[in-house]
Amino acid sequence: QVHLVESGGGLVEPGSSLRLSCAVSGLALDKYSIGWFRQAPGKEREGVSCIANNGGATYSPDSLQGRFTVSTDNAKNTVYLQMNSLKPDDTAVYYCAVDSRRVGVRFCLMGPSEYDNWGQGTQVTVSS
What we know:
Elements: E1 3-7, E2 10-12, E3 18-25, E4 33-39, E5 46-52, E6 57-59, E7 68-73, E8 78-83, E9 92-99, E10 117-118, E11 122-126
Parallel strand pairs: 2-11
Antiparallel strand pairs: 1-3, 3-8, 4-5, 4-9, 5-6, 7-8, 9-10, 9-11
């Protein structure tokens, strides 16, 4: 059974940085795509970054202006989301997810429906 646990969220001031972690058990990450998503109150869940761990291709929406970076440590079976220059609009619950249905692909997708295993989420609040 695949299990994902996010950590690293918290309350930070605008302009700060945070690094979220997602520890994965039940499968070896090096063959799968992993996504980071967020959901603010009253809004739909949206993708903020993803990585195709087989080859390392990454993607983030242009709207984030390069502030978020995804990476993996396959030895630790852990995925990270580095978030810089945080803004109040970044306040949300952040989730990691693994697409276990596509093995060995060299692309990742940003639609939540593309992922079948999810963590419980970690709250990020950006406020002065």
